Amino acid sequence: MAQIKVGFQNCTNLFPAGVVQRGPQSPAAVRAKVEALGDEMTANLGIPHLLGLCEVYDEPLARELLKRMGLGAYKIEFRPAAVANETGIAVCFDPSVLSPVPGQVVADLDLRPASRRPRWLAVAFEVLTGNRGGFWFVANHWKSQMGGPLQTDPDRQESAYLLGEFFMNRAHKLTEAMLLMGDFNCEPGDRPLTTQSQRLTPLKSKPNMLKSVRERALVLRDRNKLAYFYNCMWSLMDEPDTLAAAASPGYVPSRPMGTHGAAISQPGSPGWLMFDHVMASKRMLHGGPMAIDETTVKIHPPKYGSADHAAISVMIDC
Amino acid sequence: MSQFFNPNLMSMPKPKAYGDVIGLLNDFCKDVEEVTNGQVTCALVPGFVTGFGQEWKVTAHSVQKKIDHILFRAYVPVDGVPTRLDFYEEQMTECATPDQVKLALQSFARGPVAEETLQTLS
User: Fold this and answer.
1) Between B51, B57, B86, which is nearest A131 by CB?
2) Residues of A with CB below 8 A from B57's CB?
């Protein structure tokens, strides 16, 4: 059996020099950030065959990052922001293992052109190893919670709705196997991923919305054709050990409890948020030519402080 | 005379089971058109090549409503068997012989999902 390693990293304001206040202000600062981030991702992710990146301004910067990781031969599908002070999403891949299906690259920007930057980028791949077959990889970077969750939930709900609609009405015709990864800027049980009826218009129901569920049975059940996705992060959100074990001298938690929050920027402090997710459709979970290996879902907190999100990774058996 | 291909390529025999399975899938499509009085057409649309075999999307098309709908997916290897049929159930239905393929298609065709779908598309 062959395996494909998939990773995702929020690159935290990877802009060219001086474009925005929140980004690097000099070419040297850009270079330093690319080097630190590239080294961090290499240490955390090794050599992924497929890598989603968000908060990257343009394709050349994504290319620089790949070169730093020793992945200069990789190809990139990039969708930039519609405005100069926002970032895009990159899907980078090893062309000896994955081949993009011609004409099957879709971003939510194609469906809501008024948006300032892409919230998700979907690329269909043909697998060139193992059982072969095809699957959709969707790299996500949903709207942040700056301004408060109540004010920003509608934008994330719109992302969930558009992604669910895309899966139901278009993507599944090519293949029902879809892997969602990325920075959703909300936790698995938060309203944008669970509630159908409180979109922009409170009473408007959108049944095709993406549903992030914690029970595999909801995804696997017979003739389920709705956009149910099994979210692997539910099982990684709680304390990994008992209080008695955690209170013992020299205790080191066996895993982090999130991918973002105060605990990321100040290791050892409380304050975890599970904003980065790995989600699988039915045929990416079970019963098709390929499936994710749930035991390989990993959270990799930044080692050198070059990002404010942990990287995440998963293996696909194929 | 072809420079590269076997000149007898098109007349080379395929494994019998392969021909039988593809024949059953084509018969299923003909049945769709017959039972709906031509209001729904049906075609085998090739999908990905996989380790399970060539994927065929058995796709119904509503003539009036102009809607395409994949009734199920079939994965047919070069030898014809085992053929896997994906009826959107938890597991695919694995058929070791063409007879098992026929039984599985009959069971699906008589089930509520196929019946409702064809009524909706007609």
Assistant:
1) B51
2) 173
CA distances from A156 to A108, A112, A209 (A): 12, 13, 11
Query: Hey, what are A180's tokens?
Result: 């969602």
What is the per-residue pLDDT for A197? 52
A8 within 8 A of A181, measured Cβ to Cβ: yes
The ranges assigned to domains in chain B are: 16-121
Cβ contact A175–B88 (<8 Å): no
CB-based contacts of A103, cutoff 8 Å, min separation 6: none
- Tell me the torsion sign for CA atoms A165, A171, A173, A175: negative
Closest CA in chain B for residue A2: B51
The pLDDT value given to residue A204: 53
C-alpha distances in angstroms, A167 versus A4, A106, A122, A229, B76? 22, 11, 10, 11, 25
Residue among A241, A273, A234, A275 at smallest CA distance from A255: A241
Positive or negative: CA dihedral B34, B40, B45, B51: negative
Q: Is the dihedral of CA A276, A282, A286, A289 positive or negative?
A: negative
In sequence order, the 6+-apart residues with CB closer than 8 A to the CB of A7 are A41, A44, A45, A48, A50, A51, A52, A311, A312, A313
- The 3-state DSSP class for residue B119 equals helix
> The whole model's pTM is what?
0.93
Q: Which of A107, A135, A119 shows the shortest CA–CA distance to A50?
A: A135
- A282, A167 contact by CB (below 8 A): no
pLDDT, tens digit, for every residue of A143-166?
A: 999 999 889 998 998 899 899 999
Identify whether the C-beta of residue B12 lies closer than 8 Å to the C-beta of residue B6: yes
Q: What is the ipTM of this complex?
A: 0.86
Question: Cis peptide leading into A27, omega within 30 of 0?
Answer: no
Q: Chain A, 218-247: which have a CB under 8 Å from a chain B CB?
A: 220-225
- Say if CB A33 and CB A23 are below 8 A apart: no
Q: Is A169 helix (H, G, I), strand (E, B) or coil?
A: helix
